[in-house]
Amino acid sequence: MAEKAIKLSTFSWEGVDKRGSKVKGESQATNPTMLRAELRRQGIAAKKVVKKSTLFSSAGKKKKVTTADIAVFSRQLATMLDAGVPLVQAFDIIGRGHENAGVQDLVMKIKTDVEGGASLVEALSKHPYHFDELFCNLVQAGEQAGVLDTLLDKIATYKEKTESIKKKIKKALFYPTAVIVVAFVVTAILLIYVVPQFEDLFSGFGADLPAFTQMVVNLSEFFQSYWWAMLFGAVGVIVAFVQGKRRSQKFAHLLDRIALKLPIVGVILNKAAQARFARTLSTMFAAGVPLVDALQSVSGATGNVVYQEATLKMKDDVSSGQQLQSVMRQSNLFPNMMVQMVAIGEESGALDDMLAKVADFYEEEVDNAIDSLSSLLEPLIMAILGVLVGGLVIAMYLPIFKMGQVV
Questions:
Q1: Alpha-carbon distance 109 to 62, whole Å?
Q2: Contact indicator for 398, 213 with CB cutoff of 8 Å
């Protein structure tokens, strides 16, 4: 019954206020009668109340629940619990106040489970797509230690930082990709529509064209004849790549291994994985999760199969009695500075603090590397565009220049 009571509909209404002025607006209520009563209490005589169609209403649209939504949910829940708001009431407030209907639905399902007697971690674990093993382990540790609000705040910080790194990497890769696509499109347009105009002009010269010009003309003829095959081929390759990565685990793992070895980009991806490793392990260890269990969760949070497999092996080695610093050094994935910081943390009993410092350092390194990459790519991309477009222009005017020399 409690779940039905919170299901509100959006109504458009028109009426007259106390001064006799016409007013209108939108409000949420369970039914038109309740809305008319509420408007009457506000001094408005409702003349017309119409339920809005959810087909066009943004309030009725379910959007995808993103990682950012989960981070905000964690932060809001932590704030309310710290303020002494009961858990069920906190869910009600968060669910009602969120604009995304998908988040509302998710929060209300969790609230219903908690009201039915389930613990918070049990309610969250029913939605593994949104709350992964790491999230659930931290919540469980918070519930057991009685510091759920503190742990939720740490989760929010962790998700915000890791999501920030992902966005920066995507942004750094998107810019050159977009420019390359634009360069290809511009070149194709020149070859298909502009070069043929010059080709007609050259046909009246009655002389052999320069080799460079002839090569461009041949390329133009090829584009004109087979542009459709090249277009479908490019789309086919992209679709095959995306589907292969999504459906084939071996292909996805191969891409992860290749990505780490790429020049410049590989350095950034390595540092990002190291930052995620340190941030996740620091958060887990600070929550009181045993190191072996923490490493299990960390393996899935690194974002790369090479680090995932190395972390799982480290977990097995640590469970057999070896120190974390020793197994990290044996993996040959972590820089010496990071291993030394972990060694100091283990010896001083402040491993979580040391890992947090390492995470801060490598997150800043990723930021600086991405900024440097952007600065390097801008002139490089402009040079590539200049060579492509300038080369085509020179090829087209080269016969005209030679004619001028002969005259």
A1: 15
A2: yes
Q: CA-based angle 339:350:288, to the nearest 5?
A: 110
The predicted-structure confidence for 321-339, as pLDDT tens digits, reads as follows 888 899 999 888 898 989 9
Q: Give the separation between CA 244 and CA 240, rounded to whole angstroms.
A: 6
Instruction: Supply the pTM of this predicted model.
Output: 0.64
Q: What is the 3-state secondary structure (H, E, C) of the chain?
A: CHHHHCCCEEEEEEEECCCCCEEEEEEEECCHHHHHHHHHHCCCEEEEEEECCCCCCHHHCCCCCCHHHHHHHHHHHHHHHHCCCCHHHHHHHHHHHCCCHHHHHHHHHHHHHHHCCCCHHHHHHCCCCCCCHHHHHHHHHHHHHCCHHHHHHHHHHHHHHHHHHHHHHHHHHHHHHHHHHHHHHHHHHHHHHHHHHHHHHHCCCCCCCCHHHHHHHHHHHHHHHHHHHHHHHHHHHHHHHHHHHHHCHHHHHHHHHHHHHCCCHHHHHHHHHHHHHHHHHHHHHHCCCCHHHHHHHHHCCCCCHHHHHHHHHHHHHHHCCCCHHHHHHHHCCCCHHHHHHHHHHHHHCCHHHHHHHHHHHHHHHHHHHHHHHHHHHHHHHHHHHHHHHHHHHHHHHHHHHHHHHHC
Tokens 């199969």 correspond to 305
Q: Is a pLDDT exceeding 60 seen at residue 55?
A: no
pLDDT tens-digit map of 228-276: 888 888 889 888 888 887 787 788 888 888 888 888 788 888 888 888 8
